[in-house]
Amino acid sequence: MKGNSVLPSEQVTQGVARAPHRSLFYAMGYTKEDLQKPLIGIVNAFNEIIPGHIHLRDLAQAAKLGVSAAGGTPIEFPVIGICDGIAMNHNGMKYPLASRELIADSIETMVMAHKFDGLVLIADCDKIVPGMLMAALRLNIPSVYVSGGPMLTGSYAGQKADLVRPLFEAVGAYAAGSISGQELEEMELSACPTCGSCAGLFTANSMNCLAEALGIGLPGNGTIPAPYGQRKALAKIAGRQVMQLVKENIRPRDIMTLNAFHNAIALDMAIGGSSNTVLHLLAIADEAGVPLKLEDFDKISARVPNICKLSPGGIHRLFDLYVAGGISAVLKQLGGQGLLHLEEKTVTGKTLGENISKAEVRNVEVIRPISDPYTKQGGIAILRGNLAPDGAVVKQSAVAKEMLKHTGPARVFDSEEEAFDAIMGGRINKGDVVVIRYEGPKGGPGMREMLSPTSAITGMGLDKDVALLTDGRFSGGTRGASIGHISPEASEGGPIALVQEGDLIEINIPKRTINVKITRKELADRRKNWQPPAPKVTGKSYLARYAAQVTSASTGAVLRTRG
Ligand SMILES: CC(C)(O)[C@@H](O)C(=O)O
Ligand SMILES: [Mg+2]
Description:
One of its GO terms (biological process) is isoleucine biosynthetic process. It contains 21 helices and 14 strands. By secondary structure, the chain is α/β, with parallel strands linked by helices. The chain has two domains: 36-152 and 192-355, Rossmann fold, CATH 3.40.50.2300; 379-553, IlvD/EDD C-terminal domain-like (Glucose Oxidase, domain 1), CATH 3.50.30.80. The strands form three sheets. Strands 7-8-12-11-10-9-13-14 form an eight-stranded mixed beta sheet. A four-stranded parallel beta sheet has the order 2-1-3-4, with helices on both faces. It binds (2R)-2,3-dihydroxy-3-methylbutanoic acid and magnesium ion. Residues 84-85, 126, 163-164, 198, 202-204, 274, 276, 449, 451, 475-477 line the site of (2R)-2,3-dihydroxy-3-methylbutanoic acid. (2R)-2,3-dihydroxy-3-methylbutanoic acid is lined by residues 84-85, 126, 163-164, 198, 202-204, 274, 276, 449, 451, 475-477.
């Protein structure tokens, strides 16, 4: 399209050879005029198994109205989506990260086959968001991403509530005998009151907020509540806006540049986003051909302060952030201190700086000034050491002060199930460092989120005494000294595979180190006796193919491609 006006859809709508194609469109009720207009794919991840997606039909409808009103022809098609909460703490959790690549691949498949001219991508939860952004960059046709928006805050016993605080953590509290079965049931009934992504700053909301800073989501994308009329209006505007992008030939790679990724990381550090954002931003950048590295997170974390504390790190929820001015107000704070690239292009057709120029903070308890942050550094830290030569990730903003430096004996488990049973069975002692390995992208496979073990530790009141390390990953709802993405992973022979029960592990988050206190020689001797494990999944399953192709978490757990 650059320099001339040829639209991809002309390959299916124009000329003599395409008479059969047009006939197929007419079979569906499209008119002759419809086929003269840009064909806009409305990628709708609606399903009836994710609260964040249960209302997406309404948003797709609104987006279609926006496209039509702006002179385009909207054409909807679906993609899959997993609810991480429902997939949690069993073997289903091996699929969500892997679903990211399936989603990207299936959008590529639909768009390449049918020749759309632009996309409105509609999703809400965890892996569906990066999967969609990866596809947008791979295809590089004009695209706008719209999220389903956050769930309203729940309430329990007069306090704000969400899926994690208190509910996931209540499982540990129940095991420790500090709450009754009836209390647990009351929490179940009240923690998640509406449609939308779970109300804390977990992975879904983190990604939806970062989409604003990346420029691919409209202002308000991260925080406008899911049930609000404004959410539908946002989808309508997205439909209108994608038409503008088609006209002006502005594509995802013009928007999601290295500077835009740096903006997203700066926002992530300021709000204390999910540790999963590290994996996803690296994978999205990989599709953009942008040289983003794990080190970029640490460099930006060193200079961007943490100014918001939302659940699980604090008591505020996305609704509080919305009322306080939303992501635009946070970005305005950062921009005012020279911490952003404000000249970056966005899907509004304006720059990021123009988008946020009128924003203001309406509650300084929810969005603190840069001069009075929670911490001078950002929410996420990258650790290295003899246990993680290729890096590890911790959400330092959600670590109890007492645990920022900790040395304790390793309690080693070769799966999440074994570790969870030990925690729930009261077999973890104060001071212990729980090691959960063979749960990496390849070894798991699928790099499970360890929300149940980390929440059980917290719920049992051990979060100021016990650390947890893994080559798997965490939920955005995880808090405590939970260090994940340890790379290389155990099944690839990473040093985490060589740790033995009782080894002393030294964690120093301020110094960014993670080490097992054994000599280099001892480590080398243990390595000689180490055997790579047999793959856990074989045969024809998608997961077996995924395990064969997936690469390290330190580079986003993307799939290796040939050549
Ligand atoms: C279920 C959750 C809380 O959404 C989790 O999957 C996350 O990553 O945040
Ligand atoms: Mg998740």
